[in-house]
Amino acid sequence: MSKKAKIICIYLAIGVLFALYGWLFGDNSYKSFAYNLGTGIVWPIMLFPGLGKILGAGILALFVGLVLMS
Q1: Among residues of the chain, what percentage have pLDDT more than 70?
Q2: 40 touches 22 (CB < 8 A)
Q3: Cα dist from 52 to 11, 18, 30, 47, 58, whole Å
Q4: Which keywords describe this protein according to UniProt (predicted)?
Q5: Measuring CA to CA, which residue among 15, 44, 19 is closest to residue 29?
Q6: Fewest C-beta atoms under 10 Å: which of 12, 30, 35, 55?
Q7: Is 41 helix (H, G, I), strand (E, B) or coil?
């Protein structure tokens, strides 16, 4: 197993654990497991809200750059 595959497996395992915790004990426990799994996949953004703003600004800048280039 390559190093990249191990890192992806660890990331996904943390995401599933984050989803299980949110589904069973979290603030969104009244929502479905699928919702919590979706938030679990992006768990760094849920834990560090500033990271979401940075990611959103990067996606916006990429989109604007693509529009200006075409």
Answers
A1: 100
A2: yes
A3: 17, 17, 24, 10, 10
A4: Membrane, Transmembrane, Transmembrane helix
A5: 19
A6: 30
A7: helix
Tell me the pLDDT band of 49, cut-offs 50, 70 and 90.
Answer: confident
Domains of the chain, by residue range, sit at 3-69
SS3 assignment, position 26? coil
Please determine, for residue 44, whether its predicted confidence score (pLDDT) is greater than 90. Answer: no
Question: Residue 23's closest CA among 7, 35, 11, 9?
Answer: 35
How confident is the model at residue 5, as a pLDDT? 94
Q: Which residue has the tokens 């959103």?
A: 56
| Rounded Cα–Cα distance for residues 15 and 11 (Å) | 6
